[in-house]
Amino acid sequence: MTAAEVAYAADRYELARSEYDVVVAAFRERLAEQPDDVEATDMLAAGLNGLGLCLEKLRYFDEATSVLDEAVRTSRHAVDLRRASTGPADPDLARTLRTFALVRANVGVELDEAAKALDDALAVHMAALAASPSAELLDETYATELAQAQLLARQGKHVQAARVADLARSGHLDELVDMLRAQRGP
Fold first, then answer.
1. Up-side HSE of residue 22: CA atoms within 13 Å toward CB?
2. Could you tell me the pTM of the whole model?
3. What span, in angstroms and rounded, lies between the C-alpha atoms of 101 and 88?
4. CA-CA distances (angstroms) from residue 151 to 10, 30, 53, 79?
5. Would you identify the CATH topology of the domain 1-85?
6. What is the Cα–Cα distance from 186 to 181, expressed in whole angstroms?
């Protein structure tokens, strides 16, 4: 968890805002030098999303709207860059799709497109797990399932959201990864 995320989780929104300001500035600077840097684009989208949420909590609604609109545009660009440079089982693609969906869920726009992105991210996770099972990939898969629960809640599907969140927290895929590892051998 980043310092900004820790501050936000602790309801210290002014501190989180200043931390996100630093993150956003750093990735904007990096992108000024390397405009097609997919990692920086993805991280900028995530930073803008966090900054926008802080601004909403601080009741700076006009500024929050502007920042979150930029987050939506930036996350779409990140997905386009990532899809052009990766294969179908790349965990980085799944993370970028998750960011894309979370930005939309937080803003409340393009929710159907966000749901499709999360479905695509889960498919990428499964392909990556089948190719190279690991605890890290499993954690990423669970994080995407929790994002799916957040999106369902945003859509007003609270019972489904709770079920998906409970499923993700239950470790339901742990045995699958153990089985895949056993099949691959030492």
1. 9
2. 0.88
3. 18
4. 22, 30, 15, 18
5. 1.25.40
6. 8
